[in-house]
Design brief:
The protein is mostly beta strands. The chain folds into 2 domains: 22-77, no CATH class; 86-432, Beta-galactosidase, Chain A, domain 5 (Distorted Sandwich), CATH 2.70.98.10. It has helices at 59-77, 142-147, 324-329; strands at residues 22-26, 33-37, 84-93, 96-104, 110-114, 119-126, 132-134, 155-156, 162-163, 167-170, 173-176, 185-186, 199-205, 208-217, 228-236, 241-250, 254-255, 259-260, 278-281, 285-287, 300-301, 313-314, 333-337, 346-352, 358-364, 368-372, 396-400, 415-416, 422-432. 43% of the residues are buried.
Length: 433
Amino acid sequence: MDFFFRPRICYCSDDSFVSNFFITARRFGPGTVFLVRETGSPQLKDQMHDMRRTGALSRGRAKARGFIMMLMMVSSVLGQSKPRITKQPFGTADGKSVEIYTLKNIHGVEARIMTYGGTLVSLNVPDKNGNFGDVVLGFDSLADYQTAKGYLGALIGRYGNRIAKGTFRLDGKEYKLAVNNGVNHLHGGVKGFDKVVWTASPSVHKDGLHLLLTYLSRDGEEGYPGNLNVTVEYVLTEKNELKILYAATTDKPTIVNLTNHSYFNLAGAGSNTILDHQLTLNADHFTPTDDGSIPTGELRSVKGTPFDFTKSTAIGARIDQDDEQLKFGSGYDHNFVINKNGQALGLAATVYEVTSGRVMEVFTTQPGVQFYTGNFLDGSLKGKGGQNYPRRSGFCLETQHFPDSPNKPAFPSVVLRPGETYTQTTIYKFSVR
Ligand code: GLA
């Protein structure tokens, strides 16, 4: 007799958001499907979805098989935890309460996301020995998130990355944005999406644990035209993926470029530098910049330059070479042009850290990815658990449209008009080697 196991997650709308799963046992061959479900949460009883029972099993056979399946289920889930979402208060900002939501899948992978800045506060994933470690940099207190520079873990908008002199023209009209990076506009301005409190709504679905964040960016905020309704949905799947699904609509023509600014260290946040991490970027070109990190407009081939990560290479192997672009960025702080077709979801990057065996793959619908090696971290930030974060102890892969696109007509457009919906999807997938 063959059985087929299929873990399922069921909705649960009570306050604890505890979810559950059941196993489908199916005898191959005509006729029989038999379901066994875990019965730990009485509140789930009315909320089991998708339960099907077909074929005719005699009551006795069903009981016997049920018992066998229970045993198999217990062994198959040994060491796994129930997928769940919980929330904890984390202070107040702008007179609003701030919460941290904890999403934990059946493998024990856990993502903590805060409503301030829609920030990914921690991400615990296993190493090759099954030991869990937090692979993103962050802080222990809300006050640190509010005062520190560096956008650790935050959502970025309305425009991720730089806009030259904070100025752009749209439909013949010139707009002046907040200037917060020398003479340029960076990451949405003085009070970007990283510094506002988002409204959160958690739910558990078949594909994983969801946290939907919403924010209304008012017409004129940081100089941008149009009321922009933004949703960002974090989804932690049972395949150990953290998906981020962004969407936005507007009531006036505007520009949008949303991303997430997590700093990763696959050996564990606060460990060492990320210079030994092995990086592959699916990019034959990058966008070189001037000394203010504004793209010149050129798409330059990476061939023969320290920007060639088309084959797995240590991040630190060439980072201090005598190269003008590396000097401008104090290391890598550049947009790479992902080899892919239009809006399709494609592989942007793979990162491997040998001591932990952790692998992170990044998939995105976006045309570009900003590879930033934490060059401006200087050890002065007091991170989680009192760790300090030295220079280059985290790297960012900010999936995005190219910097300064509003002023570069040849770059893919970032204009959003009423009636259209902006979307972007990025997936960070974790595994081990
Ligand atoms: C981005 C920029 C960097 C730097 C960091 C935050 O990734 O490209 O130059 O400003 O944000 O420190």
